[in-house]
Fold:
Amino acid sequence: MATSISEPRSKAAIRERATALGFDTVGFARAALPERAGADLAAFLDQGLHGTMDWLARRAGERADPRVLWPDARSVVMVGANYGPAEDPLAATRRPRQGAVSVYAQGRDYHDVLKGRLKTLARWLAASGGAVKVFVDTAPVMEKPLAEAAGLGWQGKHTNLVSRRFGSWLFLGALFTSLELEPDAPEADHCGTCRACLDACPTGAFLDERRIDARRCVSYLTIEHKGTIDRALRPLMGNRVYGCDDCLAVCPWNKYATPTSEPAFRPRPGSTELADLAALDDAAFRARFAGSPAKRTGRDRFMRNVLIAIGNSADAGLASVAEARLDDPSPLVRAMAVWALARLAPERAWHLAPAHASTESDAEARAEWDHIPTSQSAMPK
Structure:
């Protein structure tokens, strides 16, 4: 049931309160999405472009319509928090001995930071009599189209939100309410003829403007994908061990962005040297990434990514690091250790292959050994 809002819970008061809680931008939208948002989602799923992210399909109806998710919803308060980096994110991809971690995952987990503040805002707003629900990227909510409708920015050709004030660097949260709030004007598309983001993708994941094949996206491959990664894609990943910022970082609108003032979003201390990351056992991984979004992959998938980066480093000095993981308890890690060693020290991999391949119990790890030439004369020169 809709509830009309009155002072002191006016839009101006809500905006002021949200800003006081640490949000950098606030907008208001109706609890509805443009038809194209639902149609784009349906096409994305029908074509299988979501890969193994089955959770996207399971609740697609709720995702496409906020009122299906929560029938009492009438308005959405969209909030954004600036996580702009102090350094060019692409600089990390030019340090082959280090692992490049996406800007969003370098600090504390934004889900925790934003949700706590949104809940505080929700309690304050609920005192006016309206019902509320809060969401931060963990429910079937299409935050980016809602943020565009609320005037926070527009969905760029890379499908992510672009802000004239904050460029590519906004964390988003949504507060659904039964209160009737006048919507703000939606933001217009300011991409023009620019295609910098599309051309920057290291794996060619963009099929067209605003059409992405997640199965080729480095963020999907390093975070969502659970198994081995296609051999053809591994060399294209470079040293990206968790996520990818390339399409975000090249956006011209970033010239207006400013580094975040939120300490929680700044990079945490800790080595990003590939040799150090490859030495992490499960306990050390959990300690190193406690409170970070990077913990969600678990140690084995993260180690898979690290070993791919080692294989791409062209640094023979890291071959011994890869070799040390050939007997790892995880078959996924063993498989990528074989690939990395074969890239950096093919002759050493050839010498080790007979003994390791004959005792390897995992089919995918054994398949990596099978890619190593059986005769020394066939080894790459």
User: Anything to note?
Assistant: Confidence is low (pLDDT under 50) at residues 4-8. Residues 1-268 form one domain. The first strand starts at residue 3 and ends at 4.
